[in-house]
């Protein structure tokens, strides 16, 4: 099933107990509001599907896994309500992953920026290649990683998260991300990554669905307030994105 959008798509395939959710956008797999909404809905549907034993989340292409928020859409935000609505899209995806009763395996084949790092952090088990560098660039455009911050901090700890958030123009390599716990595995090639994903999904397909559901609840214990928390964080980003600093910073990035 492919949900075609104006630019990009979300594609869902089910095969032998594995539901694969793939997203694509021509601008380095950036995430406009429509893709964020479709991702959240696709995760909810797969989580409620009795035929689905495990979910694989991936993006299309050979380069970036996800470049985060779509700049073209950020500059169209005119007021705080629109800002809240846009950044709530990231909150909805993270919360969909959080409450999904199935394990979600991530295929991280390339660079992650901003919200892309948040997506990788929310995934239950991320398998990456050595090309999967990361950067939290939000401060460089006058906002901050407010919505994705709780997911990243939960996965890699406060110190590593704050380092990424403060040094917003520097890349951290994939080995740094693995050592901090963002990635569960790191592979030198996409073939090795895909073989590891195949091995793990095969094992999970033969595991107890009830046991996995209960395990996921314990893994995410203490995050029950995130519906409210991430909405509050989205409101902060929604206010900051209206600043002249952000407008000018985005225009500079687009000209590079």
Q: What is the N-to-C order of secondary-structure elements (H for helix, E for strand)?
A: EEEHEHHEEHEEHHHEHHHH
Shape: globular
CATH superfamily: 2-enoyl-CoA Hydratase, Chain A, domain 1
Give the beta-strand count.
9
Helix content range: 40-55%
Uncertain residue segments: none
- In what range is the share of β-strand residues? 15-25%
Could you tell me the mean pLDDT?
95
Helix/strand class: alpha/beta
Q: State Rg.
A: 17 Å
* CATH topology-level fold name: 2-enoyl-CoA Hydratase, Chain A, domain 1
Proper CATH architecture: Alpha-Beta Complex
Largest sheet: 7 strands, mixed
End-to-end CA span: 36 Å
Question: For this structure, what is the CATH class?
Answer: Alpha Beta
Number of H/I helices:
11
- Overall number of domains: 1
Question: Could you explain how this protein is built, in words?
Answer:
- With 256 residues, the chain is α/β, with parallel strands linked by helices.
- It has one domain (2-193): 2-enoyl-CoA Hydratase, Chain A, domain 1 (Alpha-Beta Complex).
- Helix content is 49%, strand content 16%.
- The strands form 2 sheets. A 7-stranded mixed β-sheet has the order 1-2-3-4-5-7-9, with helices on both faces.
- The model has no long low-confidence stretch (mean pLDDT 95).
């Amino acid at each position: 099933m492919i949900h075609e959008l104006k630019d990009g798509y979300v594609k869902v395939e089910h095969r032998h107990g594995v539901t694969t959710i793939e997203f694509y956008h021509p601008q380095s797999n950036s995430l406009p509001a429509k893709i964020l909404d479709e991702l959240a809905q696709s995760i909810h549907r797969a989580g409620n599907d009795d035929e689905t034993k495990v979910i694989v989340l991936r993006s299309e292409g050979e380069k970036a896994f996800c470049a985060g928020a779509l700049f073209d859409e950020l500059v169209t935000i005119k007021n705080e309500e629109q800002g809240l609505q846009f950044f709530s899209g990231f909150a909805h995806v993270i919360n969909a992953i959080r409450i999904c009763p199935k394990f979600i395996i991530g295929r991280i084949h390339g660079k992650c920026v901003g919200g892309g790092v948040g997506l990788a952090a929310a995934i239950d088990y991320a398998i990456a290649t050595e090309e999967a560098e990361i950067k939290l660039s939000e401060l460089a455009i006058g906002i901050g990683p407010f919505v994705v911050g709780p997911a990243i901090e939960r996965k890699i700890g406060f110190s590593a998260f704050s380092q990424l958030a403060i040094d917003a123009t520097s890349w951290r390599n994939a080995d740094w991300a693995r050592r901090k716990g963002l990635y569960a595995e790191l592979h030198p090639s996409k073939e090795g990554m895909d073989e590891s994903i195949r091995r793990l999904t095969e094992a999970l397909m033969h595991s107890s669905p009830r046991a996995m559901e209960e395990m996921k609840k314990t893994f995410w214990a203490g995050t029950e307030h995130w519906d409210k928390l991430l909405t509050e964080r989205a409101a902060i980003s929604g206010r900051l994105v209206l600043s002249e600093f952000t407008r000018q910073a985005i225009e500079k990035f687009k000209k590079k």
